[in-house]
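Anyone opening a protein record will find just a pair of labelled lines. A complete record is shown below as an example.
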Amino acid sequence: MMGSYECFCREGFFLSDNQHTCIQRPEEGMNCMNKNHGCAHICRETPKGGIACECRPGFELTKNQRDCKLTCNYGNGGCQHTCDDTDQGPKCGCHVKFLLHSDGVTCIDGSVLRAEDPP
C-alpha cells in the first residue's frame, strides 16, 4: 500500500493479533480466532489444537467451562459489608445492627430504621 503495508496469509493460515504473524489454522475443532469458541471472557488455544476458556479477575468459570460468574474475591463481589460465594454468584450480607438494602449490596443502619417505625 502507498506509504504503508498490510499483511496477508496463505490459505490454511490466519493473521495473529499482531497483524504480522501467520499462524497455521487447525484442521478441525474450534479455535479462538473464528469467534465460535463460546468463551464468555477469554479464549486460549491449547497445544493440542483445542480451546480453554478463562475469566477476567474477580470471576471464575462455571461448570460448563465456558461461562464466567462474579465472585467475592475481587471488590468484595460488589457488597458493602460481607460477601458469600454461591452457585448463583455473590450473596451480600450485613454486619450486626445493619439490614440489607433492597439493592442487594448496600447495608442500612438498622437502628435508624427502627427509630422511625411507629410505636
In short: The mean pLDDT is 81.
